[in-house]
Amino acid sequence: MARQEIHLELVLGKRVYALNGRTVGRIEEARAEMQDGSAFVNEFLIGTYSFFERFSAWEIGRAILGVFGSSIKSGYRVRWDQIDFSNLQHPSLTCEVSDLSPLDMD
Amino acid sequence: MDLVRDCLDKQLVDRHGHKMGRVDGIILEVGDGRIPIVTAIEIGPVCQASRFHPMFAKVVKRITNRFGVVQKDPYRLPWSKVIPAGIEVVAGVEAEDTPVLGWELWLRKHVIERIPGA
Amino acid sequence: MKKLLEISLGIVTSVGGFLEIGSIATAAQAGADFGFQLIWAVLLGGLCVIFLVEQGGRLSAISGHTVTGAIRERFGFNYFILLFIILSAVTLLVLSAELGGVCIALEMSTGIRFQLWAIPVALVIWLILWKGTFGVIEKGISILGLVTISFIVGAVVMKPNWRSVLSGAVPSLPTSEKSHYWFSAVSILGASISPYLYLFYSSGAIEDEWDEGYIGVNRVIASFGMSFGSLISVAVLILGALVFPPRGLHADQYSQLALLMQDAFGHTGFIFFVLSLGISCLGAALEITLQMAYFAAQGFGWNWSENLPPKKEARFSLTYTIVVILAMLLVLTGIDPLQLTIISMALTAATLPLSTVPFLILMNDRKYLANSRNGWFSNAVVIVIITVAFVLAIVSIPLQILGGS
């Protein structure tokens, strides 16, 4: 997979797929670490909304669902090497879902 | 730093505090087995329109080019010149040197200044 | 001492700026059709506005963001655009109604048809925005707006049955014309709880450079200012209930509104009414126009401030210019300003959740408000009232259309 440029704002809200093709969740955030003026993205945050999956495509939907707390929302922290962006419409994991760290809620 | 929460859509100001629009896009370089890095931010109506639907972006681009208003839309600011500062994002440039004020300056010259009392 | 002055000025501004053709028309009609029965709707709307305005001020003072800017930052560009399109469309209708209100006031005083006043009034509004500064506009028009207190004096002079008035403050079910009753309630709620009110207040807090030290000031201004403003609306309703039924009128034509204070003050009452209508609508028109331009500028990130000369903020000034022209065109079509008012108030109520839901989420966001987030009570009041308004709107607007007005 060659080095490529992606627009973060355009992958936001896109579904991430597991190795078996099932949906894991949607991309919500990219966490970067600043080092010498450069920003290295070391992980992506994925939100899962199970039943309300469709509603979560938009940020406002995710925000509203987030208000209802962890009963509806949960998620994963995906390390930069655990996700593959070669197909921008279909970002997918490079590892098993079980290898992902769960997201701690604010 | 959380890029979406702390950078995207935030007000952008130049080194003198003049408003330069909002951070409409963030460009990452990914792949090749290396850690992704933020290379630039993007500002401009074309970038905003793509977030809505790629078709709108084409329409907006045609309009902006037709009037020759903006030299480069969307405008890319390299990350090296970007300083996130809490409530806003500071760009280490002069707003008037960048194309982001294209519409503002064009309207000022061709419309607003022609009206008395501006 | 300086804070005391700011508080007094703020209250005066809120009182003077509260009434506009929406509150006048909806209250007058409600009084005409249902006596004192709908006073609760005015009070409920007023209560909700107090909370929303206080929250808008608090958000701006503490986070340094305007509500609009915060909505874009927190919910993304796409939601902002959706909100922008829908809210702008509804607000433009409201603005046209206000512009129409000024024109009606002029028609009443001169006999010249209201459409002919559309262009000169629009020009005056535009000139005030072009050459004025925020402080002058906010304070000047609002101090003049204090003439609307004459409604309260008029209501008292008419010696209504105060017990009946008080019982109207308690929500009650209609005995007849049920769908029209709820539709009237919805219009009153939409007239009181207009998003431009708290959005403008939040922009104003930034223009006036408020910070955390202003939380107390904000609370006082929002509660006293908006309460007093609501009382003026209640007074209009009372007058409507006393003046129209004996004449068999339903206040469904704007010429009838001129009667509101005539029983109380005779011909002077007519003058007070015309002044109140004209000035309050002018003030509202200025506020709404500015707010529509603020909305675009804050959301897109342009330079904005009423304290800058137009050439320093070309996009902002062009926006409000276009807005005024569009409103003027709508009035020129000759559409009945009263009808336009009632429709735009009902639509406002129907679209309330679009702006208030994200607003509430922001008011509970630690990142914006740190330790000053909403308590459960503030959240509850807003959620309940907005839900009531929204549900009523969804139900009664179709019924009103089907039932015919």
Q: Topology of this protein?
A:
The complex is a heterotrimer of chains A (106), B (118) and C (405).
Chain A: E1 4-7, H1 8-11, E2 15-17, E3 23-35, E4 38-48, H2 59-67, E5 74-79, E6 83-84, E7 92-93, E8 101-102
Antiparallel strand pairs in A: 2-3, 3-4, 4-5, 5-8, 6-7
Chain B: H1 3-6, E1 11-13, E2 19-22, E3 25-31, E4 34-43, H2 45-52, H3 54-67, E5 75-78, E6 82-85, E7 88-91, H4 102-110
Parallel strand pairs in B: 1-7
Antiparallel strand pairs in B: 1-2, 3-4, 4-5, 6-7
Helix pairs in contact in B: 2-3
Chain C: H1 2-18, H2 21-34, H3 39-63, H4 67-110, H5 114-131, H6 134-144, H7 149-157, H8 162-168, H9 178-192, H10 195-207, H11 215-243, H12 254-257, H13 262-265, H14 267-300, H15 314-332, H16 337-363, H17 366-369, H18 376-403
Describe the structure.
- The complex is a heterotrimer of chains A (106), B (118) and C (405).
- Chain A is mainly β.
- Chain A has helices spanning 8-11, 59-67; strands spanning 4-7, 15-17, 23-35, 38-48, 74-79, 83-84, 92-93, 101-102.
- In chain A, the strands form two sheets. A five-stranded antiparallel beta sheet of chain A has the order 2-3-4-5-8, with no helix packed on it. In chain A, strands 6-7 form a two-stranded antiparallel ribbon.
- Chain A is globular, with a radius of gyration of 14 Å.
- The model of chain A has no long low-confidence stretch (mean pLDDT 84).
- Chain B contains four helices and seven strands; from the N terminus they run H-E-E-E-E-H-H-E-E-E-H.
- In chain B, the strands form two sheets. A four-stranded mixed beta sheet of chain B has the order 2-1-7-6, with no helix packed on it. A three-stranded antiparallel beta sheet of chain B has the order 3-4-5.
- The termini of chain B are far apart.
- With 405 residues, chain C is mainly alpha-helical.
- Chain C is built from 18 helices and no strands.
- In chain C, helix 5 (114-131) crosses helix 14 (267-300).
- Chains in contact: A-B, A-C, B-C.
- Chain A binds chain B through residues 1-10, 12, 28-34, 37-42, 80-81, 85-86, and chain B through 1-5, 8, 24-39, 42, 47, 50-51, 79-80.
